């Protein structure tokens, strides 16, 4: 047991209300402002998926329901690599498969899957994404850990060699 007196720390000092911490939905002045913000995040999401290896060249899709037109959603175009997608590449598609905004072709698989998910519910869409990428995420984590451990092995061998050398040189 320690003889050190406990320190009284005020953990409430400087604490912000929950809303100011960003734990609730961000508020926007109008649907256009919300749309722009979310489209930037959507484009960034594609680049993050590419960075973490969650793609097969140009296969795969992430969608976002439009805040103003609830029967429309934004999706990546066919044939554009995740690492290259920007806001201007994204397509606004209605639930009939018609491109309302954008000048590229829509990925038929993206439309077939995500139009039904957007019609059904947000929770179903999240489940679809989780199931699809859970295995890839787990594999990525295992690979990253394996690479990290492989990097450590040479340093561990060097440290062990130095220790052995020190022991032998003392004799």
How would you describe the overall organization of this protein?
The chain is 49% helix and 8% strand. The protein is α+β, with helices and mostly antiparallel strands. It has one domain: L-fuculose-1-phosphate Aldolase (3-Layer(aba) Sandwich). A four-stranded antiparallel beta sheet has the order 1-2-3-4, sandwiched between helices. A hairpin with a 6-residue loop joins β1 and β2. α2 (108-120) crosses α3. The longest helix has 49 residues, at 122-170. It is elongated, with a radius of gyration of 25 Å. It starts with 30 loop residues before the first helix and ends with a helix. The model has no long low-confidence stretch (mean pLDDT 73).
User: What would you give as the CATH superfamily?
Assistant: Class II aldolase/adducin N-terminal domain
The fraction of residues assigned to DSSP E strands is: 5-15%
Architecture in CATH?
Answer: 3-Layer(aba) Sandwich
Average pLDDT taken over every residue: 73
Shape: elongated
What's the domain count? 1
- Kindly report the spatial arrangement of strands forming the biggest sheet: 1-2-3-4
State the separation between the terminal residues, measured CA to CA: 40 Å
User: What Rg do the Cα atoms give?
Assistant: 25 Å
Helix-strand makeup class:
alpha+beta
Q: Describe the largest sheet.
A: 4 strands, antiparallel
Number of strands: 4
CATH T-level fold name? L-fuculose-1-phosphate Aldolase
Order of helices and strands: HEEEEHH
Low-confidence stretches: none
Number of helices: 3
Estimate percent helicity: 40-55%
| CATH class designation | Alpha Beta
């Amino acid at each position: 047991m320690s003889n050190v007196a406990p320190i009284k720390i005020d953990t409430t000092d400087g604490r912000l209300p929950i809303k100011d911490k960003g734990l609730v939905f961000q508020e926007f002045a109008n649907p256009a402002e919300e749309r722009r913000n979310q489209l930037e995040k959507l484009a960034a999401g594609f680049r993050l998926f590419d960075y973490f290896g969650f793609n097969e060249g140009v296969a795969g899709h992430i969608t976002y329901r439009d805040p103003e037109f609830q029967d429309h959603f934004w999706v990546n175009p066919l044939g554009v690599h995740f690492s290259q997608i920007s806001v201007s590449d994204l397509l606004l598609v209605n639930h009939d498969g018609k491109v309302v905004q954008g000048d590229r072709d829509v990925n038929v698989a993206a439309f077939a899957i995500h139009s039904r998910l957007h019609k059904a519910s947000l929770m179903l869409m999240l489940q679809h994404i989780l199931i699809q990428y859970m295995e890839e995420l787990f594999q990525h984590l295992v690979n990253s850990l394996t690479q990290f451990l492989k990097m450590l092995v040479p340093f561990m061998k060097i440290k062990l060699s130095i220790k052995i050398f020190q022991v032998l040189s003392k004799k």
